[in-house]
Amino acid sequence: MKLVYKIWIEGDNKAFGEGPYKLLLKVNQLGSIYKAAQDMNMSYSKAWSIIKRAERELGIALVESNIGGAGGGGSCLTPQAKILMNKYDEFCNEAGEILIKLYNKYFSELL
Amino acid sequence: MKLVYKIWIEGDNKAFGEGPYKLLLKVNQLGSIYKAAQDMNMSYSKAWSIIKRAERELGIALVESNIGGAGGGGSCLTPQAKILMNKYDEFCNEAGEILIKLYNKYFSELL
């Protein structure tokens, strides 16, 4: 037996969690929402709407787009998005460790 | 903004979480799976299958049925189910407190 958990941040609606986090990680890595969506087998419009919903619910701009230029357009994370990503990552690591310890404390003898 | 989380215990499949917990709480309170299902606007067969799945996945008998008798049949929790319920309750309370503290530690200034 093991513990499974899902954690997300909510305002009026779901705002930020594992889905947007993984997508933004790919945008940061590949420099493009289009390439990130492709890499995650997701339509561009779905990726776009995930990012826009997170931005709207959080009230934070997450992605900046660079239109045109020699290599075509691209997207990168805003400084605030990078701060959010780092904090979310640290939060999830610490939360995960603590939850596993708690699970063992309460259930290791029983299950 | 606030933190939202779902936590459950899994073996090969989902085994125990908020759904079975709330159902067993009602069974304990009302002394009957039928009455518990009715109270939760759930069909008897759905309630039955939730309990049986949890028992199968956990490998623990959770409910004992008393057939017939003067007041008709009824169901009550096994001693092991009561131990599991208490531990799950304590686990969720402690996990909830810690997660809220962690959320504030990481996000209170940002969000």
Highlighted features:
58% helix, 111 residues, alpha+beta, two-stranded antiparallel sheet, homodimer
How would the blueprint of this fold be written?
Two copies of one chain form a homodimer.
Chain A: E1 2-10, E2 14-16, H1 18-30, H2 33-39, H3 44-58, E3 63-66, E4 74-77, H4 79-107
Antiparallel strand pairs in A: 1-2, 3-4
Helix pairs in contact in A: 1-2, 1-3, 2-3
Kindly describe this structure.
- Two copies of one chain form a homodimer.
- The first copy, chain A, is of the alpha+beta class and 111 residues long.
- The first copy, chain A, has a domain at 18-61 and 74-106: Orthogonal Bundle (Arc Repressor Mutant, subunit A), CATH 1.10.10.10.
- In chain A, 58% of the residues lie in helices and 18% in strands.
- Chain A is built from four helices and four strands, in the order ββαααββα.
- The first copy, chain A, has helices at residues 18-30, 33-39, 44-58, 79-107; strands spanning 2-10, 14-16, 63-66, 74-77.
- In chain A, the strands form two sheets. In chain A, strands 1-2 form a two-stranded antiparallel ribbon. In chain A, strands 3-4 form a two-stranded antiparallel ribbon.
- Chain A is elongated, with a radius of gyration of 17 Å.
- In chain A, 23% of the residues are buried.
- The mean pLDDT of chain A is 92.
- Chain A binds chain B through residues 1-11, 14-15, 58, 83-84, 87-88, 90-91, 94-95, 98-99, 102-103, 105-107, 110-111, and chain B through 1-11, 14-15, 58, 83-84, 87-88, 90-91, 94-95, 98-99, 102-103, 105-107, 110-111.
- Strand 1 of chain A pairs antiparallel with strand 1 (2-10) of chain B, so a sheet runs across the interface.
